[in-house]
Amino acid sequence: MERTPPMVPREAFFTKGVGKHRTRLESFELALRQAGIEKCNLVRVSSIFPPNCKIISCSKGLDKLQPGQITFVVLAEASTNEPSRLVGAGIGLALPADGSHYGYISEHHGFGMVQSKLSDFVEDMAATMLATTLGIPFEPDDAYDSRREVYKMSGKIVRTQATVQTAEGDKNGLWTTVVSAAVFLL
User: How many CA atoms within 13 Å lie on the side-chain side of 19?
Assistant: First the structure.
């Protein structure tokens, strides 16, 4: 009996968007449109960045999408219809120095966190998850800046990054939705 080969993404890209509308669903659609992934059937997956997966630019990734295709994403999304309420969605990535080992993607969505704080938060989560699998000793109660130096000095984590979208709730009470996504291509 022949085994079907596993579906392991070969490429990935990161994107984000914000949408505003009188209905929550349509604000979500507009956020996906701004991110460029509205034409796909999105399937949410968890937080593993595949070994040997190449990161490509958002524009190159969007060019490879076809309307209606099943597209695997790690997706963070948040919505509000409260005027001036800060809403955010972020994706963090941590890659090991050894490209044949898997990395981690983190996602977070919530309220009240400015873009720089959310960016550090999701990057920290991804790096911490990767550090624990690589056996890098660190003090979990230390500030992320301190742990970041430990991670880098270990030589085992080569790259971290974040893709974050924040927005203030519409002053007239329209639904405001933010999305941030890691998009996988097979």
Answer: 22
Angle ∠(89,179,38) on CA atoms, nearest 5: 170
Strand partners, 17: 179
**DSSP E strands: which ranges in 84-151?**
86-96, 103-111
Contact 161, 92 (CB under 8 A): yes
Buried b (16+ CB within 10 A) or exposed e, 75-104: bbbbbbbeeeebbbbbbbbbbbeeeeebbb
DSSP three-state, residue 48: strand
For residue 182, the one-letter residue type is: A
Give me the residues paired with residue 20 across strands: 176
87 or 1, which is more confident? 87
Token reading at 15: 């994107």
CATH 3.50.20.10 correct for 12-185: yes
Extract the tokens encoding 79: 């919505």
Report whether 19 contacts 30 (CB < 8 A).
yes
Helix H or strand E encompassing 3: none
In angstroms, the CA 110 to CA 89 distance is 7
The tens digit of pLDDT for each residue in 1-24 reads 788 889 999 999 999 999 999 999
Whether 21 contacts 170, CB under 8 Å: no
Amino acid at 20: K
**Domain map of the chain by residue range?**
12-185
